[in-house]
Specification:
The chain is an alpha/beta fold. Strand 5 and strand 6 form a beta hairpin. Helix 8 packs across helix 9. The longest helix has 25 residues.
Length: 505
């Protein structure tokens, strides 16, 4: 189909763009979604790298927030519910492993912790219960559109903020205080307040630093721990039938069923602006499509400085946008094996000690790649996916063309130290460097989160102070990607929030 005179153009068919499109189309808007690549799905979809290598998507699993699944009736469009909580397995320094399930009453988990520390085993149920309550509060915060401080509209913003404050208060004084303290704490401080066992603390801290350029001793990793726990539903990734592709398929069907249209292979070269008002877009093919509202799911810096352009924006706003910290440091290694890799099912973490995690992070301070990296590994039959941290986007003394082989070697050697059968089972290897993330997925500086999840880039300061409500200085131009409040990982919250802002307007 070729839609004429759309009400709303959405740039980018990642999961947030698809969520926003589905909500807007369901509300009766004529929505046209434009995707540069040949397939929808963004980070959930595979790609062909500039080297010619074909690789899968960037996430082994992903789950939208339950409210989105229900409101868009995604089960009717084929989305399967997540399976029971999977195992999270941390490799220990002595060659053993610690197997955890994010349940307060899982007897095997409590017994495994008891072998490390009886005191920690007693505290585990309380810890799990707290993490679920803390993540539920964060979920409520993410579902609340942040006000444009200091320009608070009491009529529009007052009631949602009051409702959020009431939810925090209902947690009780002890938990309310603990949640607020946790957000600014380091993973080391946070875990050591709960447990005395180093292997247990390191295992939890691995989740805290996953996907962000922060170490276990960095302030704010208490927040990222709660954030990642919320997105995963615990420590381990929860998988669904059909995996990430199934999630994409369901969202695409929801958009189309409600009358929306998706055009792939339709890269946007420019967002057209005149007199501070959006007019539409110009595609890479030269075609122009007009619309009074444009919503971008690309990262804020790419949208505002790349697609709009600095001359169309206020100077101070341009400076703020340039200052958004990306600093991607994630790489991926995909290994095809003969099946005799010796890796257990579940989410495997190479995070033996808190110091190990901090030393792995140290490499990013000097533009290097970790000699002993933090790895998170998942398996699917004969396929093994390795999430590698830390790998600096901008290497100081090398480039990623020459370091790709070394990346693969360090990942394989590190994993083989803990699982000796792994190296001998390998049949083929493909890798994704931070530069590949930028070139093939459009992620500025290889940042999966469209902007680092650090304390001065969250809540009402995301993506920029004073612009946390999805609007921009350009009338009719809105943002809905992971760089917005609630973004980072697979949740769909920024897409849902952006659609709500537009429909309320």
């Amino acid at each position: 189909r070729t839609m004429t005179n759309p009400d709303i153009l959405i740039v980018g068919a990642g999961h947030n763009g698809l969520v926003a499109a589905a909500y807007l189309a369901r509300a009766g808007r004529k929505v046209l979604l434009l995707e540069q690549r040949a397939v929808a799905g963004g980070q959930l979809a595979g790609a062909t790298l500039t080297s010619g290598a074909v690789v899968p998507g960037l996430h082994p699993a992903g789950q939208l927030r339950p409210a989105i699944v229900k409101e868009l009736d995604l089960a009717r469009h084929g989305l399967a519910t997540s399976v029971a909580d999977a195992a999270y397995i941390s490799a220990l320094p002595d060659g053993g492993s610690l197997r955890l399930v994010s349940s307060a009453n899982d007897a095997a988990t409590v017994e495994a912790i008891r072998r490390l520390s009886p005191r920690d085993a007693e505290r585990w149920p309380e810890f799990v219960a707290f993490m679920h309550r803390a993540s539920a509060f964060l979920d409520a915060a993410y579902a609340t559109t942040m006000p444009r401080l200091p320009q608070v509209d009491l009529r529009a913003d007052g009631l949602p903020l009051a409702s959020l404050a009431l939810k925090l208060r209902r947690m009780g004084g002890k938990d309310m205080f603990r949640v607020m303290r946790s957000l600014s704490m380091s993973a080391v401080e946070f875990t050591e307040e709960w447990f005395e066992s180093e292997p247990l603390n390191a295992a939890i801290a691995g989740v805290a630093i996953h996907g962000v350029t922060l170490g276990s001793m960095s302030a704010g990793t208490g927040f990222t721990l709660i954030h990642n726990w919320l997105n995963r539903g615990g420590l381990a990734h929860r998988t669904t039938t059909g995996g990430p592709q199934g999630l994409t398929d369901a969202l695409v069907k929801a958009v189309l069923a409600n009358g929306g249209e998706i055009r792939t292979g339709a890269g946007v070269a420019q967002i057209l602006v005149e007199h501070q008002r959006v007019l539409g877009v110009r595609l890479e093919s030269g075609e122009e499509i007009r619309a009074s509202t444009v919503v971008s799911s690309a990262d804020p810096r790419r949208t505002l400085l790349g697609l709009v352009g600095a001359p169309e924006l206020p100077p101070e706003f341009v400076w703020q946008t340039q200052s958004i910290r990306m600093r991607g440091s994630v790489a991926k290694v995909f290994v095809q094996t003969d099946g005799r890799h010796g890796l257990p099912e579940g989410t495997i973490a190479i995070a033996p000690t808190l110091e190990y995690l901090e030393r792995a992070y140290d490499a990013t301070k000097y533009g290097e790649m970790s000699q002993q990296p933090y790895l998170e590994v998942t398996t699917s039959g004969t396929d093994v996916t390795v999430h590698f941290q830390f790998a600096s986007y901008a290497l100081r003394r090398a480039d990623w063309d020459s370091m790709r082989t070394e990346l693969e070697k360090r990942a394989i050697d590190t994993l083989t130290l803990h699982f000796p059968a792994f190296k001998g089972s390998i049949q083929s290897v493909q890798s994704i460097t931070p530069v590949d993330l930028e070139q093939s997925w459009g992620l500025t500086e290889g940042d999966l989160n469209h902007g680092q999840l650090i304390l001065d880039q969250i809540f009402f300061m995301r993506p920029l102070p004073g612009w946390s409500n999805h609007r921009t200085p350009i009338d009719g131009l809105h943002l809905c990607g992971s760089g917005l409040h609630g973004g980072g990982g697979i949740s769909g919250t920024p897409g849902r929030n952006a659609a709500r802002v537009l429909l309320q307007r």
